[in-house]
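Researcher: I'm preparing a figure for a lab meeting and need a structural model of a single chain. I don't have an experimental structure, so a prediction will have to do for now. The sequence is pasted below. Please return the structure as tokens so I can convert it later.
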Amino acid sequence: MQHPPITLRYFDARGRAQFLRYYFRARKVSFTDDRVPLAADFAPWRAIRDDRTRTGPFHKLPVLHWGDRLIAETLMIAAFVHEVSGDGSSLSDDDNLRHGMLTSSLCQDIMNPIAILLWTEITSPGADMSAVAKRTFERLELHCRALDQSLGEWRWFDKARNRRVMLVDCLLWEELNVVLQVFGSRLSLAQTPMLARFYEEFPARQTCEGMLAEHPSPITARPEEAAVIAKIQQLLG
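Model: Understood. Here is the structure written out token by token.
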């Protein structure tokens, strides 16, 4: 399938764009991976923030340039790519709804809470980090169980055998990888066999791991993120 020139602009972090990077690579779609450098004073970001041709209508990232079109907001970018790639037309109406619901849930119930947790000490000075970490972990554990049940009910693996890798697959693998990185041995996928199977057997896993090895990046743009993750794991015991 022919595509116009594509540029994905985001910070030099995984955050809300890594799953798109995986997808384009796995599907062999040529794109420019425009990464805004990270700095403690956020100077590279401030230098472009007010340029709406680069940061979109809301002065935020990620932004996707698809030819002459500019698409902002993570969920909207995901929906656009799903449709323009032809993936939407290859699924039933019910499965399209499931892909959309799973995409929204992974962003709202895993990606966002982890980002909030990692930034807590900066955005909420004086917050009880131990309480926030435990509450976030407990909620994510419960949500992973719900995801596990849904993958089984939706016959995700049976259907995936007969289709190509899709965007939400890349998002699911990314968020599971992030959860394991943040919570370490405290969280085991053994309690969620569907998620464990997906994480191990995802056809594009080698592509994803290769990209992470090729260009190591923090999860978010938060300064000293590695130290925060170590603290979270210590607090959870």
